[in-house]
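Per reviewer request, we include the raw input and output of the structure prediction for the construct analysed in the revised manuscript.
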Amino acid sequence: MNSGNKGCVFLIVWTVLAPLHAYQPLPTFLMPMRDGIRLATDVYLPGVGKGPWPTVLVRTPYGRKSAMDPLFILLFTDIRGYALAFQDLRGRGDSEGVDSLFLSDGWGRVRDGYDAIEGTAEQSWCNGTVGTWGYSGLGIPVYLASGTRPPHLSCCCVMVAASNLYEDAIFYGGVYQKSLVDGWLSNVKSSNLGTLFIQHANYESLYDVVNLSTRWDSVNVPMLHVTGWHDMFVQGVINAFAGLQDHGGQGAKGRQKLLIGPWVHDITSTSAGELTFPNSSYAEFIQLQIDWFDHWIKNADNGADRMPPVRYYLMGDPDRKNGPGNRWVTRTAWPPSSVERSFYLASGRKLSMQKPPPDDPPDRYVFDPKNPVPTRGGRNLNIKAGSYDQRSSESRSDVLVYTTESLLDSLTVTGRVAVTLWASSDAVDTDFSAKLCDVYPDGRSMLIADGIVQARHRNSLTKEEFLLPGQPYAFAIDLWSTAVSFAPGHSIRLDISSSNDPRFEPNPNTGEPFRKNTGFKTAHQTVYHDPIHASALRLPVVESGGNAVRLADGISLQTFGLGNNYPNPFNSETVIPVTVPESFRSGSASRLTMEITDMLGRRIRQWTIGQLPGKTLLFRWRGDDASGRSVPSGIYFCRLTDGTEVQIQKMTLLR
């Protein structure tokens, strides 16, 4: 039976048997934590059989009663034979203590996640084996608890959750995610916690205890990670999978699975904004979660450990039944092997695979923070999410629109998308935003991914560096990851602006501390695209109709590729992929040089690559110089060149 049929069968079983359940609830009890605070916990036991039972623990900030879906309880208890425990987080629901916004759930002085798992294992109805499950705000505590290495934790299932609270959920490129954070805090009646971010707007050690990437090697259990391409936590889930798959402790490394659909944060939704992708129902994967727990907790030989490590949906034009996208893809690792292609910003608002000519004049616009570009779709929670037509925004004077010629062949992009933007401003601080769109033959400009960077945090999230007015700077805008196949006849588009409100809080352009500005300044922005300041959209291209990308203007290009390093940020080691295509000429004239430089352009390390056409190379940099000495925390650049073309990747080292 395939996964889709299994999922349908379970939905039918849920519906038919729910009124006939036999599971038994226990009286609510208060589970003590290490500091004496007690957390309200409800337990449901199977109505048949004799315990003790393996247990699935669910911890929630929303009130445990809201998490007690009768069908969910039925599935795990009477049908699958688990005890099921629901627990309110500290300061939430009926639990004691002060609400701490997940800060008590990791590896700080208080470790509620660890204590809850070990406290569950000690109960008479538990056989000492515990698994954890969580979705969104219920999934964040799962990630954090895993980093404390509880002895009785066997496995986890995490869906659409942040693994690095600061970067995934609060500040994106240094910019406050206004609708997400303010909306969520308001919904859970904890708006007062927003003052924490005003006082601690820069990344600091406070946030280490809610950042799983600081301790991949502490996790020792297998996890099933589930997310959607239009989910606001998609990169956090991908980072958790890849970090644990490659750098996890014994029991975690090599035992992670990743599932990504074309979904918004509500993965049960059948649409992603204004698009509905075929064959993409989340219901097909209900069985996958059950198999995951059965295998790792009950030792069932159901193949859960043998399924491909990565399964993702390749999006495309959903109206094309025989188009290049709209299909599920399996891979052995993330990201898939790809070649980075640069699409350069050029005069006439074009995206071109040719470098801009000398003296190509810059483009300019005016950013008024009192009249920001309105959000229309994207990776959102409390407002409309998913792929929406951006033409209403693209008609504004404060949005620069760059578009390729129509594609002659399909172009498949899978992996991390980035923009290198050379820009200046007459303000000491401002933002630059970017949107990647798929332009359909009928003119629709459908959003795929977006991102933003705050100028003061262009080099570091831990400190602020303000602009010299009129001075050009290179801004790296991270659009996170995606998987999409652009169909023939479509075009690729990049929108550049300085706002996307209310998804991101508009920058007042004054340089004052976050939410302590005394006024607003209109900023005059300049975007450069000349050989010295070559602004470009950088796409990880997996395949096209041929080996080269072909556009209607006749341009064709095959080149080497500098991939996104992983992890990034990193604290001990990062891996840098370099792809040399088959067409790359052998001989000394075609040697590639890769070097690591600091912010001042000083060389830290250097490698020479020669006569290796058709190879994908992995370079491991441990944050050291040529003499093996460790370099300090900061922003570094990986620079790959053949003497003519240069590709650059920004890396963050956090000791």
